[in-house]
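Example record

The entry below shows one chain as it appears in the dataset: sequence first, then structure tokens.
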Amino acid sequence: MDGDRPHGTTVSAFMSLSMDPPMTAVALDRQSEVLGLIEGTRRFAINVLGTAQSSLAVAFARKGRAKFDGVEWAEHLGVPRLPDVSIWIACTVDAVVDGGDHKIVTGSVDEVEHRESNPLTYHRRVFGTHAPTIHDVDNLKAFHVEVSADISEADLDELLRLQDYGYVSGGSAFISVARVRESTTDVEGVAAMVDYAQSKGWVDEDGEALQAHVVRQK
């Protein structure tokens, strides 16, 4: 914050630093105006965007002071908070460390708020979200998708479709045969798996997805 005016930027590098006490760290360009404000106020917040907020990530990556124009926000604990983010973390600066052409700001966590929503990720210049882990592609009888314990069937379906992994139907995950092929070099084995799955009725109507068990982590 610069008085009553909020400032922000999109960052590609931040991390959990410590659990006890809770601390986080974020890397900012040495020329960043936001870095100067953080060093002056000794306060900052991290807004972890949700999957539907990629436009905000793009907007805040631009240069200039008008990033908050037309953006809904609220001040809490002296730092900006965006609505509908996956996680909001308010911090007090602990240290600022040199890191090449960036500076690493470490912060003590003052408050955290979390929503049951999928976080926005960015990889190879493409926005996405966290994808479930596919296991045992070489053993169809043990074929399963591992997800967090609290994810709903609707959210899992959204995750699978967003990453072109497949979809959820009737409590089971259906994984794209193309994705299975990407997970193993055994081309003949995949063909045999598909034939076996078809004989057991473990494929969808189009024959393009294999049924997998959903295993929830505890």
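Notes for this example: The helical segments are 33-41, 54-61, 153-162, 177-182, 187-200. The longest helix spans residues 187-200.
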